[in-house]
Amino acid sequence: VSYPSIVGEMLASGFGIIGFSWICSPACTELEVVVMDWLAKFLKLPEQFLHATEGPGGGVIQGSASEAVLVAVLAAREQAVVKYRELHPELSESEIRGKLIAYSSDQSNSCIEKAGVIAAMPIKLLPAGEDLILRGDALKKAIEEDVQEGRIPVICIATLGTTGTCAYDDIESLATVCEDHNVWLHVDAAYAGGAFALDECADLRRGIDRVDSLNFNLHKFMLVNFDCSAMWLKDANKVVDSFNVDRIYLKHKYEGQSQIPDFRHWQIPLGRRFRALKVWITFRTLGAEGLRAHVRKHISLAEQFEKLVKDDKRFELVAPRALGLVCFRPKGDNEITAQLLQRL
Ligand code: PLP
């Protein structure tokens, strides 16, 4: 975390804004549009995720990666129900809902499984390869089996930077399978997303132009204090259409204008905090170069630590170092690792 972010947090708390809708605080919405486009450009995301470009894409700040994943899962679910009802009018809505199925890897974060529980839609945790990466062939096999058995594939949640070892799922091959089967592809880049900003990590962004949505936690790698989770959608209308519940007291005369999104339709709660302020102040104070230097510093510290582990014959690496994460253990019995963990 950084002092500019804390200043932003204090100001936002002091202003006491509860952004139910644009009219409650135009600055709260409009600064969020600005900083989400800054951030998308900083991370070199495809233009389709920018508010400023023609088209239905854009970014929003959620509280956590868990909320972002849940929003994607719920929106994909509702889209699938609408589409399937048109294709199969003979089926009732509850029959369709009972057939829905989603996918992720057995290495994905617990929040993915939780999203399935909340959305009342089973999420199959597919076996990742020996390198702990999920690839298209595993997804293809699972989808084909499920379709054969009459299930309806809805969404695949891939991870760039798994919690356990910071493994990167193969987005290109997963995207090919998702496109073939009309399945929503979401990428959880909660930790690793910050490295998109570095030219030397450009490989990480491979396939990102083919995903429907993604999330990245600024509170993990971007010096912004908790909570601040960026989410981008290729077609925000799919979320808005799924979550749009209106009341007379929420209406205002500027509704529906393209540069004025009503972010309440993009999230679970109605009210929202002015989180964009801490992002804005952090970016303005540290600058893009300062933030890139921060990510590079984490990586170089991890490289140093990796070298220490490799040079010490009592320890071994259990996975390749990835960004700022080094997975290591003492050689020998697992009990020694458990003891070391306790002492740490
Ligand atoms: N996704 C990944 C890959 C994570 O590593 C984590 C947390 O460690 C999460 C999601 C959950 O993040 P949040 O606490 O913002 O919901």
UniProtKB/TrEMBL annotation:
**What are its cofactors?**
pyridoxal 5'-phosphate
Q: List GO terms (cellular component aspect).
A: cytoplasm
A GO biological process of this protein is: catecholamine metabolic process
Molecular function GO labels? aromatic-L-amino-acid decarboxylase activity; pyridoxal phosphate binding
**Which Gene3D superfamilies does the record cross-reference, listed alphabetically?**
Aspartate Aminotransferase, domain 1, Type I PLP-dependent aspartate aminotransferase-like (Major domain)
Q: Which residues carry this modification: N6-(pyridoxal phosphate)lysine?
A: K220
| Keyword terms, alphabetized | Lyase, Pyridoxal phosphate
Spell out the PROSITE patterns in the cross-references. DDC_GAD_HDC_YDC
Q: Does the keyword tRNA-binding apply?
A: no
Tell me which Pfam families the record gives: Pyridoxal_deC (PF00282)
PANTHER family for this protein: 3,4-DIHYDROXYPHENYLACETALDEHYDE SYNTHASE, GROUP II PYRIDOXAL-5-PHOSPHATE DECARBOXYLASE
* Family to which the UniProt record says this protein belongs: Belongs to the group II decarboxylase family.
Q: What is this protein called?
A: Alpha methyldopa hypersensitive
Gene responsible for this protein: amd
